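Q: Could you predict the 3D structure of GNAT family N-acetyltransferase?
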Amino acid sequence: MGERMYAAPTSRAAVQPGEVIPVDVPALPDDVVLRDAAPSDAAALEPVMRLADPDNPDGSWRQLPAAIRQSLDADNYTRVRAVEETESGVLVGGAMSLPAAWAFTHPMLMGSPNAHVIAGLVASLDSLAVVEAWRGKGIARALVADVERGAGAHEVGKYGAAVLYVTHEPELTDFYAGLGFTVSPDGIGIPTPAGFICHGPIKGFRFSVKALRTGVQMEPLPTPYGRQLVIRGVLPGPAR
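A: Sure. Here are the predicted structure tokens for GNAT family N-acetyltransferase:
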């Protein structure tokens, strides 16, 4: 994660796919509230989000202060959300929505302004976590729906993502499938005018993807990297 990875493109060409798919965020228990994370939340939110990837010393939670700062900037795609106990003020859950940072290191996109376009249209759900005492109350489901709605919204100065993907352990496949995500063990592929862009696979993890806009189609197909989930409708396809 870094400042460059979250920057909005300097050119806002009209490359949007279809209309935003409406998302209903489930109601939370009465004694918690879902809100934007503030810079003052970073220290308390870090150990919560670390629960999402406790064995990874280089997890996204390490960059939480920078991500929160970016989320407060209307020109950036990052969003950091926190779940707070209303009485005590203790943070009990959180999640981040990030642009696809891998677009900036993809060999077909490095140094190209198209990297910003792909990064903005392909959102990533990151560091979804709820403390143990509050699990089983629908908080994680509400956080995912909240991230979907925020990532897909076409706000002023932002594209609004076409798809949301999450990299997760295999045991979470059913959880995401129950929320309408489609799983791909071998990563994702996106046809673009410049060619076919692949991301993944990552050993020991799965990719689950959900369309945020109409016109997006997903189909498991063989690629040089395995049977990936090919996502059409994010960008115009290659010229025939």
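Q: Anything worth pointing out?
A: The chain has five helices and eleven strands.
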